[in-house]
Write a structure and sequence with these properties.
- The protein is of the alpha+beta class.
- The chain folds into 4 domains: about 20-75, no CATH class; about 145-190, no CATH class; about 195-300, no CATH class; about 320-395, Orthogonal Bundle (DNA Binding (I), subunit A), CATH 1.10.30.
- It contains 13 helices and 18 strands.
- A hairpin with a 2-residue loop joins β5 and β6 (about 110-115).
- α7 (about 195-210) runs antiparallel to α8 and α11 crosses α12.
Length: about 400
């Protein structure tokens, strides 16, 4: 590969688990003896293939209920191996850590770095790291490409990961990305991958074809969850134009579906029969009964695009950092709903003293106008306070805790 200083090289790898070392895996799980024996027995239970039984001295059975979890455990710690590589590179430690990115989801992972030599080194060291677990990289799923699109480089179409396509495009100085004020000369765009788009559209077509004689309401009820789920999944990336394109294709498919049901009717009659005007949109595929709309087909383009904010560091929802997750998402599985809503609306600060809540602070919900004085139990009358701030406020307004 030709070396480009701003190319943003990528390695996309997928390990194979059919030879995973049982002893190494059990040592890594390091659980209590009873569960350890259970997992070991499951790993050694053997498999039936075409009516013939064979022992399983290595690997995890494909399709096993617990196989994905065991594979995830086997790969745990790879992040630290990549971190050590970054720390060993010449230059500033912080800059090296920021330049070398590692993203893993289950057994699929990518490594990003602008220097092809670093990528090659990562490949070598990751191969050695995997070997200790009895794993190896799958050649058919392992590749190195450039993320920056360049006409003279064949492998410069970015990469697909979890249904997304990640690619960098050369742009002018007014659209380019920046790092610490320095112009990069390119812009990174993440979009739904071509394969994901085709797979989604094919699924929609399959449902429409299976409902040729079904009521319109039934067709809409089957399509809506598919459309809503897919659109929500891609609502954090550059999807608006793709959503519009899919809606146009779905419209063409539905028009053919409707015309097939009424071959003797005109296009105008068919349109009035199956499409209605709702909210200024004259082409809403919707079912009516006695003049009232009963079911409406969701459009991809109606899904709001909301950019995703990267989770910082090693944070995860159950790490105990209640403040971070509540402020970030407005919800946390370990806190009451109204506490998380107030945390987000107050941007993580106590409404009384203005200081940030810390992880182990005792937080209490207070009624701004006490209930004993006519205050209502509604969000606009609620605030989140430190316990000692709550005590001080209660003493001032002369009310009981409320």
């Amino acid at each position: 590969l030709e070396k480009e200083p701003n190319s943003g090289n990528l390695a996309s790898w997928l390990p194979t688990f059919d030879k995973i070392n049982h002893a190494a895996l059990l040592a890594k799980i390091n659980t209590f003896p009873t569960l350890n024996r259970l997992i070991k027995a499951w790993l050694k239970s053997g498999v039936f293939d075409n009516g013939e039984w064979s022992e399983t001295d290595e690997g995890t059975p494909q399709g096993g209920v617990i196989s994905p979890l065991l594979a995830n455990i086997a790969l745990h710690g790879m992040e630290e191996a990549i971190k050590k590589i970054a720390e060993s590179l010449p230059g500033k430690k912080r800059d090296n850590q920021n330049a070398l990115s590692f993203i893993r989801y289950a057994d699929d992972f990518v490594i990003l770095h602008p220097d092809i030599d670093v990528i090659q080194r990562c490949k070598t060291e990751i191969s050695e790291w995997l070997e200790n677990m009895g794993l190896e990289l799958k050649p058919s799923k392992t590749r190195i490409v450039y993320t920056l699109q360049k006409p003279h480089i064949i492998n410069s179409k970015g990469f697909d990961f979890l249904g997304f396509n990640v690619r960098q495009y050369t742009v002018g100085k007014y659209q380019t990305g920046k790092v610490r004020g320095n112009l990069l000369g390119f812009k990174t765009l993440i979009k739904p991958s071509t394969k994901a788009i085709k797979r989604h559209y094919d699924e929609i077509c399959k449902i429409i074809d299976a409902h040729k004689s079904a009521p319109q309401e039934a067709l809409i009820r089957h399509l809506n969850p598919i459309i809503k789920g897919w659109a929500n999944y891609y609502s954090t990336v550059v999807s608006k134009e793709i959503f519009q394109d899919i809606d146009r294709l779905v419209f063409i498919k539905l028009r053919a579906w409707a015309k097939h049901r009424h071959p003797q009717k005109s296009k105008g009659w068919v349109s009035k029969r199956y499409w209605n005007t709702i909210g200024g949109d004259n082409w809403v595929f919707s079912a009516t009964k006695e003049g009232k709309v009963t079911e409406t087909l969701i459009k991809h383009a109606k899904t709001e695009i909301v950019r995703h904010t990267k989770v910082k560091g090693n944070a995860f929802p159950f790490d105990g950092n209640l403040i971070y997750w509540s402020e970030r998402k407005g919800k946390n599985p370990l806190l009451p709903l109204r506490v998380t809503i107030l945390l987000k609306s107050q941007k993580g600060k106590c409404a009384q003293c203005g200081l940030y809540f810390r992880e182990y602070d005792v937080m209490e919900v207070d009624h701004i106008i006490p209930k004993s004085k006519g205050g209502k139990d509604v969000y606009k009358n609620l605030q989140l306070l430190h316990r000692h701030c709550h005590d001080e406020k209660t003493a001032r307004d002369g009310s009981r805790y409320a």
